[in-house]
Write the structure tokens for this entry.
Amino acid sequence: MLYFRQYRFDLASLSLYCEEEQIALRPKVAQLLSYFLTHPNQTVTREALLSALWQHGEFREAALTQSITELRQALNDSAQQPIFIKTVPQQGYHWICPVESPKKRRAEVLNKVTWAAVLMVFLTVGGVGMKTLFSADHVPFQSINKTRLIIFPLQNETGVDANAWWGYALEASLREQLHDQFQLLPKSQNAEFETEKNANKLTLTLKPMQQRFVLEAHYGNQTQQLVVEQLDEQFASVAGQLITQLNMHKQPQQSADTPINRGMSDYYRGVQALMEQGPKLAKAYFDAALLQMPNHVPSQLELAQLSWQMGEIEEAERRFAAISLTSAKVATQARFYLYYGEFYKARGQFTKALSQADQALLSAQRSQQVELIAMAYQLQADLYWTLQRWEAYQHAMNAAHTLIGSRSFAFSEAQRSFYLANPPAAGPIEKTLLNLQNSRPVLEQAITYYQQTGQTMSLIQALFAYGQNYLVPVTITEPSLLRALALAKQGGYEFLEQQILSYLGFYYIQLHQGQTALQYLMQKRIDKRFLPSYEQQQLLIAMAYMDIALQSGDSEALQQAITAYKALLDSDYLYPVTRANVKLLFAWTWLKAGNLSAAEQLTQLAFADYQQLQLGEVETYAQYTQMYIHLLKNEPEQAILLMPTHSESQLVLLYGAVAAQMNHQEQLKQQLVAKLAELNNSGLLLTQLQQLEQQSATTPSVITGLIDAPYSVYCQSKWTIN
């Protein structure tokens, strides 16, 4: 048995496993994997592989290429960002992942999920060393042998909505007092485990009883009732009594009476308002809490976060700078760094944001709170993606996934949907696709759960993420997005509303409804100091005008697109990936306008940018755009020279076949047509080639009249696929 990453391979039976699940492989693909695993860390030529595995057969080369592709798909590997199989140009392939034998593989003594969580600590790129991790005051995962517990939000059956704040306070106290005894699952996983029979759950219900209340708790086979005289600041005492009655501590704690702090009720009313009613009401409650508790850091934090999300940037900066963490609990410190990091990220100050994310991870690990640790990893992942640090991005997202499952991808991964054509194509594409596939059922559960529990902010985020998941049918995503927008407007969630409006612009561009896209993009003027959002909005406005021009030939819209793209390239705030995208989109606009010289120059610049940024998938867009320009210039030889050695891009194969026909290379043309026929949704392109063959000459006007242009793919995502 050989081990590599999360996989193991049985050499005797040629069987591949991921954890406990067997992965089906064709016999020849399994033999190919066996060869790689027994020849690791060395370049293997194609000739060696053909000699070992395909000694006979007319289509040996094609069979090898196909098997390499299948093996990469089975391992969720990428030719552009390889984890296992690296292509060595002009030589062959190199297995780059470490392979371990049973003697080297550490015995799996610990629980797999928990042990994976420990390993994830080492994968973070936050400058955390072994000495730090295992120092006396910093043990990252003391919860290895703890029982997992889910605490569900209190069900308020008193008939008075205003009483709901007490449930938030009680839940927070229970979490604080049970933290050392249990491994508390994040609240974001409540929807996933609501119907799980084997999960340890604590459910709470508050019912009226004359002038008092009854708190009913269910834990395991136990049901306990506790009379609560009034809903005041004694929730910590009530939580302690409940824990004692349910025997949830091995050694019952003797807690001293906590002095009443009148400001805490306002704080938790603010927490409730933020989740259920909107930030404006929440802000009023947090302000009231600070009047009574001027040094209450959680209230200060929420007000700082709300300030920038409501557009008050200077106020946010002032509030963050005024916060002192000297006496703050470690979990509060982690939340401070997370909030501050999100603020810097929204401003486009990514280096500062990453520093805060690293600090958040350290504090979160000390707090032993899984949700905070996962949030820190997610923030790191968002920033690594923006900074094009793909390997670090994968590590951070893997860590978040290990801790809280697919829910970790639901919202943050959807936020990366602003991209050329199929948005997450850049970077680790297969991993991204898998994430979105896993997040779909999780989001469906979450939407139902948040509707039932009245958690408006979480519902908006779940609806928004669901609407951005391009594996969901368009007939479902559009209502989901529009509902998220309506709820965000109604509740005053301004920053979230802006994000949804921008995505709706992108969404309707995908549907070739440029005018509708502009209606949403123009609804709110984004503050330029929120650079990423502002840049995104300006890019989408240009794309909307381009879409109108491409679909209708509207000369005014074409000129507006040209003007918008010029303004973007002349600006001094554009980020590298966006600048590369603008160059390619601008080139497509010039193609429509008939300016081949300008289109060629911009395409070459975009191609160089994509190579430098290691965006292999989008690099292909620039590559086949150059091929198309050479076709229009009657330069088929140059188009053929630009073709990648092993490409599965439909337009690369299409343009290559056209160039081969123009250059009278019939054998090459047939090879490319055969490859194109193997790809999904290629029927229309094959028909175009057949129509081209019937023409007396392959002139530029014939090509533009019959063959899809490069800009036909800017909307080639789920709506085309489905």
Residues 103-144, 417-434, 715-722 have pLDDT under 50 and may be disordered. The two ends are 41 Å apart (CA to CA). Residues 429-453 form the longest helix (25 residues).
